[in-house]
Amino acid sequence: MFAAGFMMNAWITATIVAVVGGVVGFFVVLRGAAFPAHAIPKGAFAGAAGAALVGVSTLIGLAVFALLGAVGIASLSRRSRTDVATALTLVMMLALGAAFLSRTVEYESAIYSLLFGEVLGVSTNEVLPTALFGVVCIGAIVAVYRPLMMSSIVPEVAEARGIRARWIELLFLVIVALATAMTVPVVGALLIFSLMIGPPAAARSVTSRPLLAVVLSVAIALITVWVALAVAYQYNWPVGFCVGVLSALSYGIGRGWAAWRHRRAAPVPEAA
Known about the structure:
The protein has 272 residues and is mainly alpha-helical. Helix content is 83%, strand content 0%.
């Protein structure tokens, strides 16, 4: 009964995370924002360390640092390259995390779970907050879908229509930060980053139709986490490892499918 209970919690939570990762990750891939999507969850652990140091909820610390990371990347990107701004923001958050950890030894044992996740250890009282955060993330994407899509595909046209690219970028990074705050405490930074990159990139390789790509991205993410949970439970392997490998494999299959389709569509040269 206990096994069935904790596996049910893991299954529900992983499903929520997969849906959020598939939807948000589609725009991460479309906008070429893989580095910020990597930096925000990795750097946000510093907030959890700081929260533990002052004695408040680690979720508050994660949310604050994730939002600070998003704002920092968006602000610095106005005057420098995005990759440089992202790297500087990540370095600063990691440095603060090291400083916080140097002042306490109580939080060191939890670093592994924040980075690599312990979805099989999700408690029942964590499922509902995760679901609520997930609804907020999906709702935010739906609310800004049109301007976000336009600024991602044709930024010049979006600017001409009055869509401010900087504000859209900031809003999108805040959504990524919200997804981070929701998922890192229960599944770890590696798992959510894997789901935000592998399945959406695979979907983009298969189809160029946005809505179909979003649906396919979510479907691949769901299959990935469900198979990963089953393999991890059966063979006692880390869930993060399984998700990472399957995400990379899905992208490889997607690229292979795209190459095969391109070869089929290529005209056959006529014989001389």
